[in-house]
Amino acid sequence: MNSTAILRGTSGFIPEAPALRESGKRDADILLGSAPLLQVDDVSLEYRTPERVVRATHRVSFDVHQADRFVLLGPSGCGKSTLLKAVAGFIPPVGGEIRLDGKAVTAPGPDRIVVFQEFDQLSPWKTVRQNVMFPLLASRTLGRKEAEERALHYLAKVGLSKFADVHPHQLSGGMKQRVAIARALAMQPRVLLMDEPFAALDALTRRKMQEELLQLWDEVRFTLLFVTHSIEEALVVGNRIALLSPHPGRMRAEINSHEFSLASAGSTEFQNTAQRIHHMLFEEEAGVPS
Ligand code: ADP
Ligand code: MG
């Protein structure tokens, strides 16, 4: 096997996700010498409406370690957003358990902050600075002076110092997402959760934002759980990728992708790996061997 990508479970459908998880855990534990920060353990999630029950994910398991850039990748409707919301504490699992630092997640908390796709996640009547300060004040994490210092620190990190006193409607889509990222990082969460944060941006801005996110990660070393349906984005942003099968989402495979970056996005190795992932996500039902 070449060194491009350690593809786990390339030989076909993976009936038992725990085996994957165990091998992934061992590698990472040896590397980091630590227990997982976030454990998603055999988690099933459902929506109940008066007419029916929709199963969004079925028995999904993965571990996220400190400073991982862990990506959930799968087609639209496979339950990625639902999983992220469950990790955030908004949706309780109907089966399995989500643990942060070994403790079951039962409610939202300031240790898990979500950045969404939508540009309207900022309060339009607050300035950029006030938007970033707001969760710090509302959660009583910091007093006003410290909150302001923290907000300006993270606004500088996303290159928006000059825009601290403008309102969101004066910003481009990319700039609004930078504010949302600064606001999330300012809370210094244990895990930063991002749900297709760049999906509504034009292609060039999206690339730039991916690059900036990786630069930020280099500086801050936050732990990231990132949702996307773009294979290329997953390879660029992630160091580990969980592949989810179509509705209801199940773990299909876990992939090491730390060696890929924007710089390698045009390379043959990158393209080959993207092809293999595409194949695993969409074509294995046909029984084609990989
Ligand atoms: P993804 O983010 O991967 O596109 P979602 O997590 O949004 O997928 O949705 C997973 C499944 O759950 C889909 O079949 C979707 O239609 C269903 N679903 C999502 N939200 C709700 C809801 N509020 N009520 C009922 N079903 C929902
Ligand atoms: Mg979604």
Walk me through the topology.
Layout: H1 17-32, E1 38-48, E2 53-64, E3 69-73, H2 80-88, E4 95-100, E5 103-104, E6 112-115, H3 128-138, H4 144-157, H5 173-186, E7 191-195, H6 203-220, E8 224-228, H7 231-237, E9 240-244, E10 251-256, H8 268-282
Parallel strand pairs: 3-8, 3-9, 6-7, 7-8
Antiparallel strand pairs: 1-2, 1-4, 4-5, 9-10
Helix pairs in contact: 3-4, 3-5, 4-5
The protein binds adenosine-5'-diphosphate (ADP) and magnesium ion.
Task: Please provide a written account of the structure.
It is a single chain. The protein is an alpha/beta fold. The protein has a domain at 123-188. Helices cover 36% and strands 21% of the residues. The chain contains eight helices and ten strands. It has helices at residues 17-32, 80-88, 128-138, 144-157, 173-186, 203-220, 231-237, 268-282, and strands at 38-48, 53-64, 69-73, 95-100, 103-104, 112-115, 191-195, 224-228, 240-244, 251-256. Strands 6-7-8-3-9-10 form a six-stranded mixed sheet, with helices on both faces. Strand 4 (95-100) and strand 5 form a beta hairpin. The longest helix is centred in the C-terminal third of the chain and has 18 residues, at 203-220. The radius of gyration is 19 Å and the shape is globular. Residues 1-26 have low confidence and may be disordered.
